[in-house]
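Give me structure tokens for this 226-residue protein.
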Amino acid sequence: MEVPVLDKTGRKVGVMTVDEAELGGEVNPALLKQAYVRYHANTRQGSARTRNRGNVEGSTRKLYRQKGTGNARAGAVRTPIRKGGGRAFAKVKERESYRLDMPVKMRRKANRNALLAKLIDNEVKVFDDLSFSAPRTRDFEAMLKACGIDRSCLAALNRDNGNARLSAQNVERVTVCASDQLTCFEMLNHRFMIITKADLEAWLKMTSPANAKAKAARRKSAKEAA
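Here you go.
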């Protein structure tokens, strides 16, 4: 697959070749959904709590007399059936864990497969350079407009590219993330993605199966040496 490389004016200045086989060959919706649910579940704190009638602030005085008013019997204002009262079955348990796990190989494949899906839909804009002389939101917006980006966008930027990060953080519907922490959750949450050619090549090399095998071999040799 050949991906066009653009400059900041939206003009094509080169081509980047991406091997589809290394990205999974074809889009696997079931794998992408499993990975997306896993990333989303792991962002939950599990600390949601509600108050029962004993924890709600208010008087315990009986609102009106038991008989003779024609109304239904009523006690304190903190009863669950009244506005501002406590919950009948309050959530008072300890912190809950919604954490899900997934094999490393499946996570890595899901991330690469999400990139393949974005490339097939022509939703990845690869630039030759994304450096700015000074942080300026207007310049970043002009670059997005020149490239036809009119929806939500993920800007995968290098950590050292401070001017670009500052320029993008105030643009509406643009999310900034580190290029070496790109995940399928971030990619699938946005319509477009922008990244430099160098950062994309580094990410592909970092998440390649061959690189993973090399890391595993180094860890094994280190354990044997210890």
